[in-house]
Every structure is written in C-alpha cells, then in structure tokens.
UniProtKB/TrEMBL annotation:
GO terms for molecular function: protein-disulfide reductase activity. Keywords: Disulfide bond, Electron transport, Redox-active center, Transport. The keyword Acetylation does not apply. Belongs to the glutaredoxin family. Signal peptide: none annotated. The lineage of its organism: Eukaryota, Sar, Alveolata, Ciliophora, Intramacronucleata. It holds the Pfam family Glutaredoxin. This is Glutaredoxin 3. It comes from Stylonychia lemnae (Ciliate).
Length: 115
C-alpha cells in the first residue's frame, strides 16, 4: 500500500497496519469517544461487512503517535478513517454516501443490503 509512504511513517508500524487492514473486509481507525466512528461501525454491521478496528485512544502515547503518522502523515487528523478491501475511502460521510448511491452494495455484492 502506498498510503503508508509518508516520510514520518516508520516501516514497522506501516507493516503492522497493512496486516491489520488485510485481516478483514473493512478496517476502521477510531477512538472510544467518537460518535461518527460508532455510526460507521454500525453501518458496516447492518450491511454484514466484516470489520476490525484500532482505537487510537487506547494505545500508549508512542504507538498512538507512530500509527497516526502512518495514517495521516502531516495531514489533518480525524476519525473515523475507513478502509474497504484495503482501500482508504474516507470517513463516515463517504461510507454513508457509498451506501446511498449503491456503490457499497456493488463493491460487496448482495450481502451488503441497504438497511
């Protein structure tokens, strides 16, 4: 994945993120207190899209910084960040738009029903 090619991203963290993202169909970067993170995960659940997550605020300070460096580089930092089939699609708004326009269903087939 070229996404983790930021100069501030250490390779060991990039590799672990690649592995985590590849484990499930969807991967969500979130925090325990983010309502839009919960909405994104609920939307994935309703559409029967298997997902995993990393909760940034539960990590030690160093890991949180290094993982954030890989995900965001020097760009603005926000959650959730959603990956579908290894591709970063954006946040909750982009995920909701995909559901609304049918592209979520076309990407995942009939198992991703609009609820």
């Amino acid at each position: 994945m070229d996404f983790f090619g930021y100069p501030v991203c250490k390779e060991e963290y990039a590799q672990r993120l690649r592995e985590m993202i590849a484990e499930k169909t969807a991967f969500v970067v979130s925090t325990t207190y983010c309502s839009y993170c919960n909405k994104a995960k609920s939307l994935l659940d309703r559409n029967k899209i298997e997902h995993s997550e990393i909760l940034l605020d539960t990590l030690n300070a160093n890991d949180q910084m290094e993982i954030s460096n890989c995900i965001y580089g020097r760009n603005p930092r926000y959650v959730p960040i959603v990956f579908l089939k290894g591709e970063q699609i954006g946040g909750y708004g982009e995920l909701m738009q995909m559901q609304s326009d049918g592209s979520l269903q076309s990407k995942f087939g009939p198992s991703a029903d609009i609820v």
